[in-house]
Design a protein that fits this description.
Helix content: 40-55%
Largest sheet: 6 strands, mixed
Number of helices: 20
CATH topology of the domain at 31-242: Rossmann fold
CATH architecture of the domain at 31-242: 3-Layer(aba) Sandwich
CATH superfamily of the domain at 31-242: HUPs
Number of strands: 11
Strand order of the largest sheet: 1-6-5-2-3-4
CATH class of the domain at 31-242: Alpha Beta
Strand content: 5-15%
Structural class: alpha/beta
Length: 434
Amino acid sequence: MSSPALTSSAPAIDPTFENVWDELVWRGLVHVSTDPDALRALLAGPPITYYCGFDPTAPSLHLGNLVQLLVMRRLQLAGHKPLGLVGGSTGLVGDPRPSAERTLNTKETVAEWVGYLRSQIERFLSFEGENAARMVNNLDWTAPMSAIDFLRDIGKHYRVGTMLKKDAVSARLNSDEGISYTEFSYQILQGLDYRELFLQYGCVLQTGGSDQWGNLTSGVDLIHRAEGTSVHAIGTPLITNSDGRKFGKSEGNAIWLDAKLTSPYAMYQFWLNTDDADVADRLKVFTFLTRAEIEEIVAAHDAEPFRRIGQKRIAFEVTSLAHGPDAAAAAIAASEALFGQGDLTSLDAATLESALRELPHADLAAGTPVVNALVETGLVASLSEARRAIAQGGVSVDGAKVEDDAAVVAGSLPGGVSVLRRGKKTLAGVFVRG
């Protein structure tokens, strides 16, 4: 029997918190910040303008960026005014990586990626009402600036000794690779962004990952030196997998927000595999569920962890946020059907294909014997092992038990595919040609 339908939580702040700052802290979203007391008072007062920047160093944002998008949305829901910055100029340079220089992309590629990222950011913010979001591109104010103007007006406020102490810079200075002036200058460019947004829009808060803290404070320091006033920054904690690696493309384990790069099914499965110990933290960071709802889910999960109540709720909520409730529901239906709790023939072809691409799979000709398909997909090591598995009653195709080792794979499911099963949980996909 399929699970009852879920309804995703609408983005909203939790009314049980006196201040959105208190909610950010409770959700574990403040790893480091400028003056916490001043920030709490600032966020409790009249609407402020704040920003977060996203560099187009790939054609899509990923789950690490999603943390920032949801922080931006929470602040907007509390009445504050977001600026979503896409780094058309900083994306051409790249912030320092710990180990080696970035590969610089062409101007045409970066411009194309700017458009992709902009459309993704726009899905998470509201562009209506008194605190409507605005999108900006730092190429608009850096491109017209000459090198002399940059050095005279901006560079004079920076002290090289302070810049050398930044974690990302010092790590590279102590490496065999060293660091180029291009990447060394990144922190100045990000500081320039904050100052420009302060002057144009009165922006007084920047958010970002804590690994960007040196770049965040670059802007805070620049505005203090150049404009004689104080502004703020919040650094969110890095979100890591159970193996300690952070989410992100630099680690080679990115879960992308673009459905073409990471399908809704793959995203759903990623969250379904959340470690039990991470359930509470993930619910706080990646969903808009209230404190009471999260405490209830965590209590139910802890009482019966084998039911994976927490993981299923996280998977549904985040997939809904990223791709919409319909895509999340389709991912659930595919997951249940593949593992024997639903009707495979009822799935739409696109969802079924994306699900099977996540499994061991093979492209085979129509009429391929099941025994060969078992070998080609890696479910067994040899034809003799395939025949034994069939004789023992442990093989099915498209939900029907295989009785004869002369049976063939027909691709009878939507989209011309078949699902092979060996035992209860070992699955593979077959994409039938011709």
